[in-house]
């Protein structure tokens, strides 16, 4: 699994002054990005969010999930500390792609939960891979993370790659009347750690 660093530039945002770094996944051709702030290579653990693409939640204000508020929370927290990174992976819909996610939403509208919908479409409940994180982190000289996630499987997947997750920072935000059952399924079927 290899990624190629392509380009970087300043990225002023409404939430703070980040830089954006583009990587090409040699195997899949996917274009991943990192938003970074501060000095990341000083060997102190880095506050990090590994965020999987969700066009509907991240860009279109969907209330079906909690992705948009989580991304915003992560960027705000990094900006407040002045140091950290978002690894934004282009694995939409837990890896099944945008159009299949819309198909899954249609099945959910008809009564399936998120896991059942993926399975009905012939996919794994969660087909995501995190392998590219390793060379991306190496590019920045980052070895140790404070990872913003509620998903213990994400912590395990990164640890299995040899990335040291020294702390898990909960990211419990974005609950609304439309995503209540979606979040409940994350807890009951996907092992997420949510207190509310
Ligand atoms: N297939 C499918 N994917 C979804 C659905 N809702 C959100 N997603 C995708 O799920 C991914 C986000 O995963 P989540 O399970 O919400 O969260 P996580 O990244 O595992 O865990 P956190 O780090 O705690 O946010 C994004 O790629 C979304 O596009 C859905 O109903 N079906
Ligand atoms: Zn989402």
UniProtKB/TrEMBL annotation:
InterPro entries: GTP_cyclohydro_II, RibA, RibA-like_sf. GO terms for cellular component: cytosol. It catalyses: GTP + 4 H2O = 2,5-diamino-6-hydroxy-4-(5-phosphoribosylamino)-pyrimidine + formate + 2 phosphate + 3 H(+). It is an enzyme of class 3 (hydrolase). Keywords: GTP-binding, Hydrolase, Metal-binding, Nucleotide-binding, Riboflavin biosynthesis, Zinc. Pfam families: GTP_cyclohydro2. One of its GO terms (biological process) is riboflavin biosynthetic process. Its cofactor is Zn(2+). The keyword Cell wall biogenesis/degradation does not apply. Belongs to the GTP cyclohydrolase II family. PANTHER family: 3,4-DIHYDROXY-2-BUTANONE 4-PHOSPHATE SYNTHASE (PTHR21327:SF18), GTP CYCLOHYDROLASE II-RELATED (PTHR21327). This is GTP cyclohydrolase-2. It comes from Pseudohongiella spirulinae.
């Amino acid at each position: 699994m290899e990624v190629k660093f392509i380009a970087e530039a300043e990225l002023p945002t409404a939430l703070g002054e980040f830089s954006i770094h583009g990587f090409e996944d040699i195997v899949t051709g996917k274009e991943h990005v990192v938003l970074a702030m501060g000095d990341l290579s000083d060997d102190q653990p880095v506050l990090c969010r590994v965020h999987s693409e969700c066009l509907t939640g991240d860009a279109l204000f969907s209330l079906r999930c909690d992705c948009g508020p989580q991304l915003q929370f992560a960027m705000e927290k990094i900006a407040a500390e002045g140091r950290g990174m978002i690894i934004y992976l282009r694995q939409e819909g837990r890896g099944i792609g945008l159009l299949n996610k819309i198909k899954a939403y249609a099945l959910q509208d008809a009564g399936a939960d998120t896991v059942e919908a993926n399975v009905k479409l012939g996919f794994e409940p969660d087909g995501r891979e995190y392998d590219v994180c390793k060379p991306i982190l190496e590019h920045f000289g980052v070895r140790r993370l404070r990872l913003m996630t509620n998903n213990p499987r994400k912590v395990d997947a990164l640890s299995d790659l040899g990335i040291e997750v020294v702390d898990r920072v909960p990211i419990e935000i974005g609950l609304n009347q439309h995503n209540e059952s979606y979040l409940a399924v994350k807890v009951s079927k996907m092992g997420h750690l949510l207190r509310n």
